[in-house]
Amino acid sequence: MTYLYLGIAILSEVVATTFLKLSDGFSKPLPSLVTVAGYAVAFYFLSLTLRSLPTGVVYAVWSGVGVVLIATIAWVFQSQKLDTAALCGHGPDRLRGRCDQSVFQRFVAVNGLC
Questions:
Q1: Closest CA relative to residue 9, chosen from 54, 44, 59
Q2: pTM of the full predicted structure?
Q3: What is the largest CA-CA distance in the chain?
Q4: Do residues 90 and 100 make contact, with C-beta atoms less than 8 angstroms apart?
Q5: Contact 73, 66 (CB under 8 A)
Q6: Does residue 24 come out as left (phi exceeding 0), alpha (psi in the -120 to 50 range) or beta?
Q7: What residue spans of the chain are helical by DSSP H?
Q8: CA distance 62 to 64
Q9: What is the pLDDT of residues 39-96, one digit of tens each?
């Protein structure tokens, strides 16, 4: 049940963040309402998850999966261009013309989550 709660938290946060862009600085009522409700649901289910899983693990999975989903939604539905940093999972200071494993990919691999 804990991972179901984490999944709900991730999806709620992704929906809230997507609608945050659509709210246009909270000037549009419906997207603003979805944003606030989505974050409330996300943090509620995140708090339930934290009852039984370590904070570091929960936050790594929540933020990592959320970033991937939000970047994908922004790319597909909002015509956002993905630069090399977004595609490789790290900032310009680590770019050397190739994509190394991101911190999240290493975390997943080390902990056998795939």
A1: 44
A2: 0.71
A3: 44
A4: yes
A5: no
A6: left
A7: 2-22, 29-49, 55-77, 84-88, 103-110
A8: 6
A9: 999 999 999 999 999 999 999 999 999 988 998 888 888 887 777 666 665 555 444 4
Identity of the amino acid at 42: A
Q: Decide if pLDDT at 106 tops 70.
A: no
C-alpha to C-alpha distance for 104 and 110, rounded to whole angstroms: 10
Query: Which tokens is 95 given?
Result: 């770019």
DSSP-derived letter for residue 89 is T
Q: Can you tell me which residue has the tokens 């959320």?
A: 66
Do 17 and 11 form a contact (C-beta atoms < 8 A)? no
Residue appearing with tokens 């090399």: 84
Give the length of the chain. Answer: 114
Cα–Cα separations (whole angstroms), residue 51 to 12, 40, 46, 70, 111: 19, 17, 9, 26, 20
